[in-house]
Amino acid sequence: MTQLELQHLKKYYAAHKAVDDISFSIAQGDIFGLLGPNGAGKTTLIRMITGIIFPDNGSILFREKPFDPRNDIFNIGYMPEERGLYKKMKIGEQALYLAMLKGLSRSDAMKRVKMWFEKFEMQNWWNKKTEDLSKGMSQKLQFVTTVLHEPELLILDEPFSGLDPVNSNLIKEEILRLNKAGTTIIFSTHRMEQVEELCQRIVLVNKGKKILDGDLSQIKNDFKEHIFNIGFDGPLPQFESQTSTIYRQKDQIVTVKIGNNATPSDVLKEYLAYNTHITSFNEVLPTLNEIFIRLVEELKTTPAFSDAI
C-alpha cells in the first residue's frame, strides 16, 4: 500500500519557486529519505504534507485517498528542525497538552508520557521548563511529544541535531523500533551519511526540483564507476596494467579504475600473474554525497534547469 503520494506539487513565493513540480510516492512501512542542502525545498514540502500550507498546484494522497488535513493530521507526527516547544511551560504539562491535542484522552496521555519519560530517563524533568533544557535535552523531549500519539506517518526533520552520540543512538534505535512496528518514516536531512545508514528509498531535491529518487542501493549501483580497492601484503609490483588505471594508493590498498573492455576477474588475474599477494578485492560504490554533488554540477550545465532556477 502507498502511504503517501505527491503529484506535481508546486509552491511559489512571488518569483521564488520553493517547490517546482515535484512528484514521488512512499510505500507503507518505508524509512524514506528526503534529502537536499539547506534551501532545497524540503521544509516547504513537509509543510504541505502536514497541512501547514497548501500547494499552489498538484495534489497529495494519504493512504491512497486525497489528503484531508482536518482528519489525517491525527495520523501524522512531525518533528520540525526548529524547536516547537513552549519555553515557559513545564515539561510534563507540555507533553500532556500536546498528546491531548493529537486526540488522546488525559488518562491515555498520562500513561504514554510516563512510559516515554521512563524510557528516555526524563522522569526528573517533569517540573522543569523548556527554556532550562540543553539543546540535546529539548531534542529528546521534542521527539517524545512527536511520537506520543503513535502516528502512522512520522516526519523527522534533522532529528539528531544537538544530540551527543549516546542519545543519537537512543533516538536511532527508537526510529528503527517504530518502523519495525509498522510506522512509515520520512527522514529529512542534509546529512547524507545518516541517510545511508537508515533509509531504504530516497528523493534528492535541489532548488525546488526533484533531481533523483528511488531505491538507495539501486541508485548507488547506477552511479558506480567500476572502481575497486585491492588490498595486498608486501610490495606492490610495478607493471603497466592492460586492464585498469591506478586511482590512488594508500598503505596496503591500491584503488584502481577498470577499463571499459576489462572485467574484475581480468584485473585479479593480471595482478596475480605478477605475484601480488592479494588480501581483499572490493568494489567502491559512490556515497550519496558524491552522487548529489555530481548531479548538481551536471545540472548547472543543463540550460533548461539553469533557466528554471
Write the layout of secondary structure elements.
Blueprint (H helix, E strand, L loop, with lengths): L1 E12 L2 E12 L3 E5 L6 H8 L7 E6 L2 E2 L2 H4 L3 E4 L11 H11 L4 H14 L15 H13 L5 E5 L7 H16 L3 E6 L2 H7 L2 E6 L2 E7 H7 L4 E7 L10 E7 L2 E6 L5 H10 L3 E7 L4 H13 L2 H6 L1
Parallel strand pairs: 3-8, 3-9, 6-7, 7-8
Antiparallel strand pairs: 1-2, 1-4, 4-5, 9-10, 11-13, 11-14, 12-13
Helix pairs in contact: 3-4, 3-5
Structure description:
The chain contains 11 helices and 14 strands. Helix content is 35%, strand content 30%. The protein has a 6-stranded mixed sheet, sandwiched between helices. The protein has a 4-stranded antiparallel sheet with strand order 2-1-4-5, with helices on one face. A 4-stranded antiparallel sheet has the order 12-13-11-14, covered by helices on one side. Helix 3 packs across helix 4 and helix 3 (91-101) packs parallel to helix 5. Mean pLDDT is 90; it is low at 304-309. It has 2 domains: 2-220, P-loop containing nucleotide triphosphate hydrolases (Rossmann fold, 3-Layer(aba) Sandwich); 225-283. The radius of gyration is 24 Å and the shape is globular. The longest helix has 16 residues, at 165-180. It is of the alpha/beta class.
Which fold name corresponds to the CATH topology of the largest domain? Answer: Rossmann fold
Which sequence of SSEs, written as H and E, runs from N to C?
EEEHEEHEHHHEHEHEEHEEEHEHH
Number of strand segments: 14
What is Rg?
A: 24 Å
Span of the ends, CA to CA: 35 Å
Low-confidence parts lasting 5 or more residues at pLDDT below 50?
304-309
Biggest beta-sheet profile: 6 strands, mixed
CATH superfamily of the largest domain: P-loop containing nucleotide triphosphate hydrolases
The fraction of residues assigned to DSSP E strands is 25-35%
Number of helices: 11
Shape: globular
In total, the number of domains comes to 2
The CATH architecture designation of the largest domain is: 3-Layer(aba) Sandwich
For the biggest β-sheet, the strand order reads: 6-7-8-3-9-10
Mean pLDDT score, rounded? 90
Helix/strand class = alpha/beta
The level of helicity is: 25-40%
**Highest-level CATH class of the largest domain:** Alpha Beta
